[in-house]
Specification:
Rossmann fold; RNA-binding; 14 helices; BirA Bifunctional Protein, domain 2; YbaK protein; alpha+beta; globular; about 575 residues; nine-stranded mixed sheet
RNA sequence: CGGGGUGUGGCGCAGCUUGGUAGCGCACUCGCUUUGGGAGCGAGGGGCCGCAGGUUCAAAUCCUGUCACCCCGACCA
């Protein structure tokens, strides 16, 4: 394949587009790979589409290699299957819904679990047919509240989604492992660094779930990692539980007047002023903060919940939501306080809490709040706190909850060292759906004993368009894009400089030789463009190998250059094609 | 959905405060010169000033409304 710059549908931009902030977005626009067509929707231009297809090809090859079979569904689907699974309503505003001319409801699929499940139900009815792995590479639609960051968060994007169908849990484990291995192979080929973090399966239901995150500051996912190799989604981090502390010699709890201390800061300040300790000052970590929220259960009932945690930490809303799923968390309003007089805003304490207390309000604490820990906390009266309240002696929570924020430096659950907070781009997600969809859509097969059993499923996604952005993010430099060989829009970028017709003849001959050898060549044959522009464009476009044919030709050489390292060497013209082929295949 | 910002030619921007019918750089076209790191000179083409109302003799500019887009947050298998 020969791409001539003189006729290529391409216009590079000298300046950064004003609304592009992150490197992949900025450079893909500037280098003429994509153009914005809508909020959250981009057009692939010829160079960009070549890169996109390479990424897609790699994903497809690895899926085929593992033995998955490709199918293709419509993106425009009727309401009924999603009604049956409950997602017509459960998916919320992020699903595009529309009506046809007869007024029937349709949707633009955000994901295809229902359709895959129904397809298998349609065709298969025996355990002998399983396991089955099928996938598609499809445009997905999500009405994102805020598309952003170029290709990273789109409203219309391409995803490879695959699904596994097994009779038994052990089969699901094997299917999951096979996908995990295929993803590792895929991202390795794409040249993308990743960490595999355990994740909560959230609204999808199911059990085991892991995300492949490409560590990058522009990513939207926060995860934690330790030097010892632990990595997890913040929602999935388990707090190491300290041993109980002996408290036989602990002083008795005592209530003190603490006027005007509705916040941890004011409480700590007052404690240090009026109740100073000899050994060390009071700090937020000595206080037990009791945060009240309102849970809304799926069937609509509302339940107050109090979360107790050390005062130097806040509740992490995502971690809390993940713990109470499928209930959702709402703020506790003034009206709610009025309806629950046992809760004194700013002075809530354990004595008024717990399912067995008079209020009956569920009270869950951070795992660090173990028996024997001693706290300064609310006394359930305005302007009063209780000191030396000992967990296990003076109060017993209803249980623990992983809702406190994770802080850098917290210990990793597996003892592998302190945690660091990092950001990542979610490039893949695998999880065990279990029987959620098979139950909802009644996918059953006959097992070895002639008994009907519900099939267990796994679901596995790779964001193909997002992966293009992730590769660009991870490989670019100051001058421009810098593609790994397998995804580059071309194998070689030949730059012809000067005005000597002999240069263009030699460059074209070289280009044709390389094309004949099966390579894709991007040939800058523009006659009236200055060398500076051609070099700058070549660096922007980011083909890994750049060959310059120009003034060296008089000495019988062309220059071979590595885009990434900038290493250069002269090659005799006669051997150029062979040497370049070697260099590329190496 | 909350907060902030921006809409003027393909891209980046000025003009708006103080109304007088649009300008600069890049890109594009033609000619001549130039050709190893974003060339020079000359001549050109291209803009419903996001949209709709209003004020005014006159609106890119003032007023009202509306739409779109970007950023932060919320949200997000």
């Amino acid at each position: 394949m020969l791409l001539r710059m003189s006729t290529l549908f391409l216009r590079t931009l000298r300046e950064d587009p004003a609304d592009a902030e992150i490197p992949s977005h900025r450079l893909l626009l500037r280098a003429g790979y994509i153009r914005r067509a809508a909020s959250g929707g981009y057009t692939w231009l010829p160079l960009g589409y070549r890169v996109y297809r390479n990424v897609e090809r790699i994903v497809r090859e690895e899926m085929d290699r593992m033995g998955a079979q490709e199918v293709h569904f419509p993106a425009l689907l009727p309401r009924e299957p999603y009604e049956a699974s409950g997602r017509w309503t459960a998916y919320g505003d992020n699903m595009f819904r529309l009506k046809d001319r007869r007024g029937s409801d349709h949707l633009l699929a955000p994901t295809h679990e229902e359709m895959f499940t129904l397809l298998v139900k349609d065709l298969y009815s025996s355990y002998k047919d399983l396991p089955l792995w099928i996938y598609q590479i499809q445009t997905k639609f999500r009405d994102e509240a805020r598309p952003r960051a170029g290709l990273l968060r789109l409203r219309e994007f391409v995803m490879k989604d695959s699904y596994s169908f097994d009779t038994h849990d052990s089969g699901l484990d094997a299917s999951y492992a096979a996908h995990r291995a295929a993803y590792i192979a895929t991202f390795d080929r794409l040249g993308l660094d990743y960490v595999i973090v355990s994740a909560m399966s959230g609204a999808m239901g199911g059990s085991r779930s892991e995300e492949f995150l490409h560590p990058n500051q522009v990513g939207e996912d926060t995860f934690v990692r330790s030097a010892g190799g632990y990595a997890a989604n913040v929602e999935a981090v388990r707090t190491p539980v300290p041993d109980p502390i002996p408290h036989d010699d602990a002083p008795a709890a005592h209530v003190e007047d603490t006027p005007d201390t509705p916040t941890i800061d004011t409480l700590v300040a007052l404690a240090n002023e009026r109740f100073a300790r000899s050994d060390r000052p009071w700090s937020a970590a000595d206080t037990l903060k009791n945060v009240v929220v309102m849970l809304v259960h799926p069937e609509g009932s509302r339940e107050p919940l109090v979360v107790g945690l050390p005062g130097d930490r806040d509740v992490d809303p995502k971690r809390l939501e993940a713990q109470v799923d499928p209930a959702v968390v709402e703020a506790f309003t003034e009206a709610d306080f009025a309806a629950n007089p046992a809760l004194v805003k700013g002075y809530i304490g354990p004595a008024a809490l717990g399912e067995k207390s008079s209020s009956g309000i569920r009270y869950l604490v951070d795992p660090r709040v173990v028996a024997g820990t001693r706290w300064l906390t609310g006394a359930n009266q305005a302007g009063r706190h209780v000191f030396d309240l000992v967990c296990g002696r003076d109060f017993t929570p209803d249980g623990t909850i992983e809702a406190a924020e994770i802080k850098a430096g917290d210990p990793a659950p597996d003892g592998s060292g302190p945690l660091l907070l990092a950001r990542g781009i979610e490039i893949g997600h695998i999880f065990q759906l279990g029987r959620k969809y098979a139950d909802a859509l009644d996918l059953k097969v006959l097992d070895e004993n002639g008994k009907l059993v519900t099939v267990t499923m796994g679901s596995y996604g790779i964001g193909v368009s997002r992966a293009v952005a992730a590769v660009a993010e991870s490989t670019h430099d100051e001058a421009g894009l810098c593609w790994p060989r397998e995804v580059s829009p071309a194998d070689v970028h030949i730059v012809a400089t000067g005005k000597d017709p002999a240069v263009f003849e030699a460059a074209q001959r070289l280009a044709i030789d390389l094309v004949d050898a099966g390579l894709t060549v991007l040939y800058d044959d523009r006659r009236k463009v200055s060398p500076g522009i051609k070099f700058t464009d070549a660096e922007l476009i980011g083909v890994p190998t750049i060959v310059t044919v120009g003034r060296g030709l008089a000495d019988g050489v062309v220059e071979l250059r590595d885009r990434r390292t900038d290493a250069r060497r002269d090659l005799p013209v006669a051997e150029a094609a062979a040497t370049i082929r070697q260099a590329i295949q190496a």
